[in-house]
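Name: Extracellular solute-binding protein family 1
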Amino acid sequence: MNDNQLTGQGRNRRDVLRLAGLGAALTVSAPMLQACGFGGGTQSGDSAANDITGSFDWKKYDGKTVKLLMNKHPYTDALKKHKGEFEKKTGITLEIDEFPESNYFDKVTLELQSKQGNYDAFMLGAYMVWQYGPPGYLEDLGPWMKNESATHEEFEKEDFFPNLLKAGQWNFTNGDPLGGKQQWMLPWGFETNVVCYREDVFKKLKLKPAEDFDEFIDLAKTLDKKAGDGMYGVAVRGSKEWATIHPGFMTMYSRLGLKDFDVKDGKLVPTMNSADAVDFTDKWAKMVRDSGPKGWTSYTWYQASSDLGAGKAAMLFDADSASYFQNEGTKAAGKLAWHPGPKGPNGSLDTNMWIWSLAMNANSKNKEAAWWFLQWATSKEHLKYAATKGQHIDTVRQSIAESSEYKDKFADYTGFLDTFEKVIDDTKIQFTPQKNFFDATTSWAEALQTIYGGEDAKSTLDDLASNLESRVND
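Structure predicted for Extracellular solute-binding protein family 1:
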């Protein structure tokens, strides 16, 4: 997929990222990942971290160079603007190679497969740990974090939102939950998935945000009929990509208590064809048919969020940062408000998330200096700068989220901070960890398109579940 196909516009991905202020791997392709033959796993009892002794010293690796492989992204922009502080503090030089998101993970995969250690650290998402971790491509950061000689005292891992740190922990066993002693990445920035809506339209029609899914469907219908000015009810993603499932769809799915897989006798059993899952999926597809955009099957985060900003959509159920950047320089600017979205039957606000994180190449020849960089890049010092002066919208550290400087940033964004605070404790990865995630979830998106096109939901999801069972248990 080239940049123009990715965005649907005559501009490259870099331009879109600057305009939209995000790009959260929401359209990352999986073919390279799927073709790698991932398997196996490594332990890290012989970590190089254990060789570091004495008192911690930022200048310990003065004169070293750390090479970074990075996605072209606002988070990288903030790093480039602030890296002088790191170089002054440590004497370590940072060399940054950037690639567009459309082929970034292909670059990462080839680098890791080569085992040459050309790059010391790189950006990745939590789902990529499920692919890059089992073959031993990732350094376990746990020993580095535990060694007081290797980690500065203000690092304070407890300051990360717990579910974000946990997202980088897994034992590489299909179906086992996240968590454990091994830390394969450190959270750098993330997105929670909520509802953004046109506050002016709601006031005009005397409407309130929906509190459950059936209300949400009815609300979308009302807006589609009465908002006027050619506006439709709700924007959500619809392209045949894994990223269609993970934002609004998976968030609502999880709030209803639904799961993607069960584990029985050590095997993954697909459950997206349970009676309740079929009912939900059928309702979701019908909601989009009745109240969504034309051409929905081509909709990525870009089209969905752009429709909100352009005044074409009355609501967006997607990443909060996708809507955040529609509140300036657009037709809808100053007219947007945020809400957690529909709750589950027991008041659940379970919310799926995307995380951009930083990891160390297990084949780096420069691990000590690389760790000095990783702990600085995820420190309060840099992340406060990135959150208040850059575009790290959802901060990964609790102390920054509680700071007045951070809160002041959202003064003109009605309900944004309140929504963030309401969902953050329930925001986590809702998918079952498994090594064939991208392949399986892309097939799920294809099934959703099929149901949207009018095919029977039960038979379509039965076929999906039957097909996936052998694939995810290979």
